[in-house]
Amino acid sequence: MPNYITIAPDTFSWEQNIKKSRFILNIARVTSEADARLFIDQISKLHYKANHNVFAYVIGNNDQIKRYSDNGEPSGTAGIPMLEVLQKNKLHDVVAIVTRYFGGVKLGAGGLIRAYAGTVGDGVKAAGLVSRLVRLQVTLTVNYKSSDVLTYWLTSHDYQIMDTQYDTAVHVIVPVSTDDMAEFQKNLKDLFAGQITFEIGAETFFEIPVK
Question: Which residue numbers delimit the UPF0029 domain (predicted)?
Fold first, then answer.
């Protein structure tokens, strides 16, 4: 599977009040349209007293499945703006549902678009994003005296440290792309005059925070 961006947690909730109306975002990772529909049904049942439960979702590496619903809001003021926010953030395999409890003040078409898009956009920002990258899992082993130097070199060269383990030596696990591996090994061997070992594992998905 290719690399792609998704939300950091499996599910996330966020809400705001706009002119006395509550807008509640629930967003989740999904792997199929059936998963998306199930999540929508769960949230809609939870908020069955709400005025609207508007949804949008994108599924597939190239967004092969895109769906949305205004759920009673004026056409084009809710579902489409939500979908556009998901795509603008380059998210894949996610479903977003925004619940609205009407507070008595009408927002107008422009206000609704801003409210639904803004709720998704701000909620996604609060949730945080990760890039799911296919990388080799590499375990680097150095002595204790060299561990700080290794950590500094990795972070300054934008390598994400996934785990650090300690026994008679220090073992640091980092994801490295296949294309970078030869240069990565050469640079670290030169830095530590050969006093570093590499255990190269299989390719797997790593989730790297998006800054």
Answer: 140-195
